[in-house]
Amino acid sequence: MKRLLATCAVLAWAAAGCGGPSNNTVTVLAASSLADKMPQIVALAEKDNPDETFEVSYAASSQIVQQLNAGIKADVAVLAGEGPLDSLDPSLDISAPQIIATNSLAIAVAPGNPGQITSIDNLAGEDLSLVVCAEQVPCGEAAAAMFQKANITPTIASYEPDVRATLSKVASGEADAGIVYVTDLAGQSVDSVEVPLDVQVVNTYPALSVGESATGAAFVAFLGSNASQKVLRDAGFGAP
Questions:
Q1: Cys-Cys link to 54, which of 42, 150, 184, 233 (CB 3.0-4.6 A)?
Q2: How far apart are CA 76 and CA 25, in angstroms?
Q3: Strand 156-160 to strand 177-181: parallel, antiparallel, or no bridges (unpaired)?
Q4: Cα distance between residue 228 and residue 211, in whole Å
C-alpha cells in the first residue's frame, strides 16, 4: 500500500496526477544541522508543487526519535546519523531510510582563538574550555569516536543538546572550542581547525517517510533529486 502511495505521490509532483491537487501540509522533522539549508530545499519543493505546504521543525536527532516514538504527527524525518534509528519503536510505520548526505566534523574556535588551538592535540589541555554535543546525539557520538581515534581524553566543559547550541557557546566566547560539523561554520563568527583525515568521523543523513503519507514519501525522494543535492553540496555536505 505504501509503495503504491509513494509512486502516486512522485507522479503527482511530476505531472499533477493522482487525482489532482492534494492541498496537503507536509510536516518535516529535521536535524538541527540542516536548519540553514532545508528552507531552500523546501522552497524548491513548494515552487514545483504549489498545492503542498511544508512545516519544518528542527531538533537533535535523538529528540526527533523520541518525538516519533511518542506519536507526534510527522510525514518525514531527516536525521544527522544512523545511530538514532536503532532507538525507533519497531511498531512505527516508517519507510526504509534513504541516505541523502554525509557530513564531517570540524573544531570550531572562539573568536580570537583564546585557547590558542592549532591542532586536535590541543584539545587535551586541562585549561581549555571545550563543549560538545550530548553523547546520545549523532554529533556527540561522532566527537567521542574522533577523540578515541586521536587517542586523546579531553576535559569537557559541557554537553549541549545539539550542534547549534554547541556552536553558539563557541561563537559567544563562553567556550574556547567546540566540535561541530563543517557545514555549521559558514557565515559564523568563529575560527576553525581542520580535523585530520586519519581521525575524521563522517556521519550519514538518513531520511524516512512516516506512516502512509504519499507526499512525505515524495519529499524523501525529492531530497535525493539533483536540485536538492546541489543545495546540500553547495553547503558543504558530502554526497550520500
A1: 42
A2: 11
A3: unpaired
A4: 23
Instruction: Please report where in the chains the cell 505531472 appears, as a residue.
Output: 15
- Residues 181-237 have pLDDT tens digits of 999 998 788 999 999 999 999 999 999 999 987 899 999 999 999 999 999 999 999
Q: What is the DSSP letter of 222?
A: H
Crossing angle of helices 226-234 and 38-48, in 10° steps, is 160
Going by pLDDT thresholds of 50, 70 and 90, the confidence category of residue 20 is very low
Residue with C-alpha cell 512522485? 10
Give which of 138, 121, 132 is closest to 86, Cα–Cα: 138
Alpha carbon distance 140, 169 (integer Å): 15
Say what the pLDDT of residue 168 is.
94
Question: Distance between CA atoms of 206 and 98, rounded to whole angstroms?
Answer: 5
Q: How many CA atoms lie within 13 A of 108 on its CB side?
A: 32
Q: What are phi and psi of 228, to 5 degrees?
A: -65, -40
Residue 142 grid cell: 561522532
Tens of pLDDT, residue by residue over 132-166, are: 999 999 999 999 999 999 999 999 999 999 999 99
What's the one-letter identity of residue 202?
V
C-alpha cell at 183: 557545514
Handedness of CA 216, 221, 223, 225 (dihedral sign): negative
Query: What is the structure's pLDDT at 23?
Result: 53
Enumerate residues 6+ apart whose C-beta is below 8 A from 175: 110, 129, 130, 131, 157, 158, 169
